[in-house]
Design goal:
Length: 486
């Protein structure tokens, strides 16, 4: 089986990054990784940093970090350039951006999201797997720079190049494993999965989450199902080492939840229910309480949106039971909010208020290094937004609008889908509370955000607000909103 290193061609052996090692100082790799995660939370970034990542940087294997890590490192070490931290110039590192260098073939057209590396059509492992996430990566243009002046990804700037290279090129076993499961493979030995395959599954999960935060679920769901099939094919193929098997189980389960969420957000509730059940079964087989808590959490959210509030309460309580094995107050806070949403749907105000109070007490205990990676979206804005939804379900429109305003104000800019969601929630709450002109203004903001985000769920919320504002169309702000909506 070809290893991941086979895709690097004649790359020289890595040179240790001594400058970065000096920046770590006396802290262990694990302690330094925890500091990186804390710094990321301070600036609203999403990174999954552990001791292994720090080791890869210091060994020189990671010659240039992706843009998310660059922002975090610049925040940790003000005034340091990438070169000061021992990294190579981005244009010198092989990846998506290197295609624009002299002597190389041109990259994709402007505005295209980077696709998988091209490989020769030789029928080898890389050729079979190079398209694993190719369709998934088609998306709208990104802005060229953020507020800090650090470039955003374009055709020539590979924010995800390190991620994509591993997700595509080391994921070769996935396609082969799929073929190995068919009748034609009966006479040949079945290929086994390795750590590079587990890492490819994990990076696929991260990439889907990043794209979902930017774009919403509508344009991603169908394109995300193939990586999920490949991940479960890897599980069927098996792995010779238990640590790799454990990573594959958790990775496949998290991928099923991510794909299920895309289905949920795009209005395919039956598909979402199936994916969540698949993830829960994987959690039970692997005995992983974190994956089980996540699966029940998503199931509770889906049940609430599908009009099954009692099921939402039961699923949220089951999630809390599983999460008690994990030292994460923030996870328990989110699960209490899921339970509150179920109680609100049942019209039980007292039980809802108790769950909301419990969620706030747990949230106030702060984040920890034990918080699951998938909870990067859960901050104060999400807390306010979910509470707003509870009060809205209970018919307390002024209180719902008050929390929705806070959610909009606190939301980090790069969570574009959530900004649109909370603004749509605000527009609906204001409409039902009689604040017609402010509701119309919020509705116009949602329409602007929906130029970047495709979400059936958010569009349905906005459509309902438009219908409820129709009787007030003589108001100029309402008329402007209805014209834009139409």
């Amino acid at each position: 089986m070809a290893s991941s290193s086979s895709s690097s061609g004649n790359r020289p052996p890595p040179r240790p990054n001594t400058a970065f090692r000096e920046l770590r100082g006396s802290r262990s790799p694990g302690e330094f990784a925890a500091a990186v995660r804390r710094a990321a939370r301070e600036i609203g970034e999403q990174v999954s940093c552990d001791a292994r990542y720090i080791g890869r940087v210091e060994s020189g294997e990671i010659r240039c970090p992706n843009y998310a890590y660059e922002r975090v490192f610049r925040h940790m070490f003000p005034g340091h350039t990438l070169q000061d931290m021992g990294f190579q110039a981005r244009e010198s590192v092989r990846g998506r951006g290197s295609r624009a260098l002299p002597g190389r073939s041109p990259g994709p057209p402007p505005g295209a999201f980077p696709g998988p590396p091209r490989v020769p059509p030789a029928g080898g492992l890389q050729d079979r797997s190079a398209g694993l996430l190719a369709d998934l990566l088609a998306g709208p243009p990104e802005p060229l720079a953020d507020a800090a002046g650090i470039p955003r990804p374009s055709a020539d700037t590979p924010e995800e190049s390190d991620v994509l290279r591993r997700a595509f090129m080391t994921g070769g076993t996935a396609a082969v494993a799929t073929a190995a499961l068919g009748p034609a493979s009966a006479a040949s030995p079945r290929l086994r999965a390795g750590s590079a395959d587990a890492e490819a599954v994990e990076e696929s999960v991260r990439l889907i989450r990043v794209l979902d935060d930017r774009q919403g679920g509508d344009g991603l769901y169908r394109r995300s199902t193939r990586p999920l099939r490949e991940a479960y094919a890897l599980l069927d193929a098996g792995a010779p080492r238990q640590p790799v098997r454990d990573r594959l189980y958790v990775g496949a389960g998290e991928l099923a939840l991510s794909v299920g969420w895309l289905a949920h957000d795009s209005g395919r509730l039956d598909d979402a229910r199936s994916h969540y059940a698949e993830a829960l079964a994987t959690a039970r087989v692997s005995g992983d309480p974190g994956l089980e808590a996540h699966a029940f959490c998503n199931t509770a959210f889906l049940a609430r949106d599908a009009g099954r509030p009692r099921e939402a309460v039961r699923a949220a309580q089951a999630a809390q039971q599983a999460a008690r094995q994990l030292p994460s107050h923030r996870l328990l806070s989110l699960l209490a909010l899921r339970e509150a949403g179920g109680w609100a749907g049942l019209g039980d105000r007292a039980a809802c208020e108790q769950a909301l109070l419990r969620a706030r007490i747990l949230f106030a205990r702060g984040p920890s290094d034990a918080d699951p990676e998938w909870m990067s979206f859960f901050g104060e804005a999400e807390l306010e937004g979910l509470e707003s939804q509870c009060w809205s379900a209970l018919g307390d429109w002024p209180r719902a609008a008050r929390h929705a305003r806070r959610a909009v104000r606190l939301q980090q800019p790069h969570f574009v889908r959530n900004r649109a969601l909370f603004t749509a929630q605000l527009a609906g709450d204001l409409t039902r509370g009689g604040e017609i002109e402010e509701a119309a203004a919020a509705g116009r903001e949602v329409i602007a955000l929906l130029e970047q985000v495709r979400s059936t769920r958010i569009r349905a919320m906005l459509d309902r607000t438009a219908r409820e504002l129709l009787p007030y169309r003589r108001s100029a702000p309402v008329a402007d909103f209805l014209a834009l909506h139409g």
